[in-house]
Design goal:
Length: about 450
């Protein structure tokens, strides 16, 4: 095996994996087929391009994803470095200017003396130390290679993208700025709907034409990215208790809570574009214009990006990989990111972090590691390697993936904060052990 670590895929996981391995002193070749070969969702050739929302979700240690982000920061994550430097206002969430975010990561990797960028597609897996981070849009050639290696059928699901609206096209006088329960200031723009407006919107949404799936694909939509129209089919009030819930919001002029609300979140630092929060969709583009313009404030909305639906591919990792995310059929290959069965930007980054660390350890003759079960990283790794293969599904990070506290705490917020405190203590000990081991002999 050569002394070079080969990372396949320049998304969040691949970028993080390459950075962690290079920062540990190893030569890295980072392969990315874009821009020579495009995907159905990407628009640029930049590393870590965000193709869905520009939000990395909630901050704060009372949220599991907030804990995961803090663990990554402590682990000197490149992705978190970029996110913190390119953030835009988003209340209690961490959202970024997606263009600046990708440019920062791309520049850091291109300028790293131990990272060699290879702009080409990899369609087969060799005998070198490899990190497979091809993501949810893995090419057909690589998918065929994985099918042959694992001997099992791929599992897959669909991921929906929310539209982006041009700021100048919004009727601001029909909206109000506020975050739910006043958290984070006035970072969200709210489009309030009356009962009549909501019912008309719901009727047209349900009647709108949708993009059909290919005949050979069985549609399996991940709950966290459920299209708005699919949610609407579950009942008249489903949206009002989901992405259009008015709870915690008050119209300033009347002091009343709206019947329903559509929230818009700033997409970039300049405030020229806004993301329709929770409005992932598979409606045809003309239908998106027609239906979404029924929302107060969006009557003349100009869509900078329409919502869309694309196929996400992942492996049934518990059946094909060991506890260190190495392919059983090819142990020199470590899985990272969404191909391993995690869902979400931060979760993909975390698996990339772990893959980069373990690739560096393995190539230097040290055993791979699994983070403590009490940590968010450990909880994710446990989920994708030890779940039952027959019922395995992708997962975001959540406190349910971590062991329960020894003593019960009834208050949910306090309980989550205690779980996070325990996790960070275990994580710091884990990192200290890694640093000590890295300085010692192989």
């Amino acid at each position: 095996m050569s002394e070079t670590i080969h990372v396949i895929g320049g998304g969040l996981a691949g970028s993080e994996a390459a950075w962690q391995a290079a920062e540990r002193g190893f030569q890295v070749r980072l392969y990315e087929m874009r821009p020579g070969r495009r995907t159905p969702a990407h628009e640029t050739g930049g590393f870590a391009e965000l193709v869905c929302s520009n939000s990395l979700r909630a901050e704060g240690l009372q949220n599991a994803v907030g804990l995961l982000k803090e663990e990554l920061r402590l682990g000197r994550s490149l992705i978190m470095e970029a996110a913190d430097r390119t953030r835009v206002p988003a209340g209690g969430a961490l959202a970024v200017d997606r263009d600046l975010f990708s440019k920062h990561i791309t520049a850091r990797l291109e300028n790293h003396p131990l990272v060699e960028i290879m702009r080409e597609e990899v369609s087969s897996l060799g005998e070198e130390m490899m990190i497979l981070a091809t993501g949810p849009l893995t090419s057909e050639a690589m998918a065929s290679e994985l099918h042959a290696l694992t001997g099992s059928e791929h599992l897959y699901f669909y991921d929906a993208i929310a539209p982006i609206v041009e700021a100048e096209s919004i009727h601001w006088e029909r909206t109000f700025s506020a975050s739910r329960y006043g958290k984070g200031g006035d970072d969200y723009v709210n489009c309030p709907l009356t009962q009549a407006e909501y019912e008309r919107f719901l009727q047209e949404l349900l009647a709108a034409e949708k993009m059909p799936a290919h005949a050979f694909e069985k549609e399996r939509v991940f709950e966290g990215c459920m299209p708005i129209e699919t949610l609407a089919e579950r009942g008249a009030d489903t949206l009002r208790f989901g992405p259009m819930k008015p709870v915690g919001l008050v119209i300033p002029e009347t002091g009343e809570q709206p019947y329903a609300v559509v929230q818009l979140r700033m997409e970039n630092r300049h405030g020229t574009a806004y993301n329709m929060v929770g409005f992932q969709t598979k409606l045809k583009w003309p239908e998106q214009t027609r239906v979404f313009r029924l929302i107060p404030g969006l009557e003349d909305a100009a869509f900078l990006r329409y919502g869309s639906l694309h196929r996400n591919t992942y492996l049934c990792t518990p059946a094909v990989a060991d506890p260190f995310l190495r392919l059983i059929a090819k142990p020199n290959v470590i899985l990272a990111g969404q191909i391993s069965g995690v869902e979400g930007y931060v979760e993909s980054t975390a698996m990339g972090w772990l893959a980069g660390v373990n690739a560096a350890r393995l190539i230097s003759g040290k055993p791979p590691v699994v983070p403590p079960a009490e940590t968010a990283h450990g909880g994710l790794a446990d989920h994708v390697t030890r779940s039952s293969p027959s019922s395995f599904q992708p997962s975001n990070i959540n406190f349910g993936l971590l062991p329960a506290l020894r003593s019960k705490i009834r208050n949910r917020r306090l309980r989550y904060e205690a779980i996070s405190a325990r996790a960070l203590e275990a994580w710091r000990t884990f990192l200290a052990g890694l640093e000590t081991d890295d300085r010692g002999p192989a």
